[in-house]
Amino acid sequence: MSATAPGEIVLDHASRAFRVRGERGATLKELALRRRRRGPAPVRALDDVSLRVAAGETLGIVGRNGAGKSSILRVLAGIVPLDSGRAECGGEVVTLLELGAGFGRDFTGRENIYLSGALHGLARVEVDARMDSIVAFSELGDFVDVPVRTYSSGMLVRLGFSIAAHLEADVMLIDEVLAVGDEAFQRKCLNRIAERIERGATLVLVSHAPGAIERVCERVVVLDAGRIAFDGPAPEALLHYHRMLGTEHGAGAALRAGPAERVLAVTEVELQDAEGRARHVFHSGESLRVVFDVLARGPAARPRLVLEFRDQRGTPVFNTSRALDLDGGGVRLALEIPRLALLGGDYDLVVSAHESDDPDPGIDRLVGFSVADEPGVHGVADLRGTWTVGEPVRVAS
């Protein structure tokens, strides 16, 4: 009998190797004479991995392609057996690992909802009670009554996640599949995941998107060649991951010609927290530091740096600028925001450096970031204050 508590996850010296079968099959003569050549050495997807996740914890897993991220999820889901060691998940486990996994390709979306419900132990009456909500969440409309073999990858994700989101789970195992959906549906999925976390579910999320990981996961494991390279709080772990990839400093997306063709250009933009760590996700009320590198390749008439924060619809929420003293070269400067007064959502910071009389300043750099959602507040601006209750007001008779 397992001692693993509901919601608890245990990997104990877990190892798993996969054989690469690229060689041709052996002939009868080669088998008889034992002349068959050996194939490539097995690939160790997991190499003596030990990991313990407490009930209700949120764990993100990042790493290069082939680092063993998906293998961990498949081992925890019971899809792939270990060569040695132990892997256990306590309680009910819901997985979303592959597009359309477990779907009958010739069945309609609605029929696959019944099928998936039955595979998770739900009676038909229980699926009926959730059907309308599942269909509404998926936003598939009339396509729910069309065979899933006609679905696009995004439609498969919508159906698969919608089913998983309506199953009671102690543990949720979610792979990179959320990256396929459109941005609005990804936010919707992350919000649903956050709701399940508030209700005590344990989450293990694999993704190449640092924003998605940092937005919902407090703890992150960095895998490298089947081993744990780092295990700790999300900001430190993601910084370790970016350093491992050589991308800990990023200038954001360049949106116009490079500095060789222009007198002024913003060449670097980085968002940092109070401790100077590069971050992609912040909390409302947290301090934010924006670091800029501006390059001048010649004399500039009254140069200015302009920055604008925009919400997910592209609507400006704040705009400011300042004069630059470049002295014929470059400069690094920083904007300190002691309290980030934005509520949960995805935002863009757009930046440009230009001469004051430039009729078309354009945009040099765009950096995306997120603010973590918090229950009970909605909108863009964080205007929360302190409530006080005065004396009762008596109505004159």
Describe what this molecule looks like in 3D.
With 397 residues, this protein is an alpha/beta fold. The protein has 2 domains: 237 residues, P-loop containing nucleotide triphosphate hydrolases (Rossmann fold); 119 residues, abc- transporter (atp binding component) like domain (Coagulation Factor XIII, Chain A, domain 1, Distorted Sandwich), CATH 2.70.50.60. The chain contains 8 helices and 18 strands. A 6-stranded mixed β-sheet has the order 5-6-7-3-8-9, sandwiched between helices. Strands 10, 12, 14, 15, 17 and 18 form a 6-stranded mixed β-sheet that branches. Strands 2-1-4 form a 3-stranded antiparallel β-sheet. Helix 3 packs across helix 4 and helix 4 crosses helix 5. The chain is globular. The protein starts with 8 loop residues before the first strand and ends in a 26-residue tail after the last strand.
How do you describe this structure in short?
With 397 residues, the chain is of the alpha/beta class.
